[in-house]
Amino acid sequence: MSNMNRSMEGHFQLKKRGYNVQSYGTGTQVRLPGPTQASANSYNFGTPYAHISNDLRTQAKDDPNLHSHYSRLGLFAMVDRNITVKAAPEKFQNEKMSYDVILTCEERVFDLVCEELLKRAGVKSKPVHVINIDIDDTHKSSLKGGDTIVELARCIVASKDLERDMDGIIEDVQRRMTHRLLYTMAFY
Questions:
Q1: How many percent of the chain have pLDDT more than 90?
Q2: Mutual orientation of helices 49-61 and 64-73 as an angle, nearest 10°?
């Protein structure tokens, strides 16, 4: 659920506060828990969140146990929130825009983002700050992680010289918030 949960909560919190933000996944497909642990619901990137919501609700319509399972996991609420944020999940590796800062919510995703940036070979010579906020993949943790993401964004936007200030911003937010941060600079 990682992009659907953690980074979309961060996107939601930032958007709600007026930040200009985009969010992406890095996997091969969008995956959500299915009826059993062995069977996930998988969707292609670009599948509208409204379609994902309808699919989950159709699966659970005649099965009270499945409806309870999806509700307990917070799937309905999560996808409904995502509908208010953007139309559909997007894949980072397909994005051609460049950004000043990239935030990830899991070290594995941080590594995939850094790997993708290395593949692009820094031909634009444009620096990008890549920061991982280590957030557990639960509804409760994603809410707390959203607070850390907002605080990090607030500090970044307040900086007059991000290259000079970033190490201090990372140290300050790390000291005040509960999530472990990982940081590197890469290039587009």
A1: 86
A2: 140
How many angstroms separate the most distant Cα atoms in the chain?
57
Mapped onto helix, strand or coil, the DSSP state of residue 27 is coil
pLDDT for 136: 92
- Distant-in-sequence contacts of 31-36, Cβ < 8 A, 24+ apart: 31/1, 32/1, 32/4, 32/56, 32/75, 32/79, 33/1, 33/69, 33/70, 33/73, 33/75, 35/59, 35/63, 35/66, 35/69
Position 71 pLDDT exceeds 70: yes
Q: What is the pLDDT of residues 88-115, one digit of tens each?
A: 999 999 999 999 999 999 999 999 999 9
CA 131 – CA 45 distance, rounded (Å): 23
Q: How far is Cα 27 from Cα 25, in angstroms, rounded to an integer? A: 6
Q: pTM surpassing 0.85?
A: yes
The token pair that represents 70 in the structure block: 């999806």
DSSP code, position 3: I
In terms of residues, how long is the chain? 188
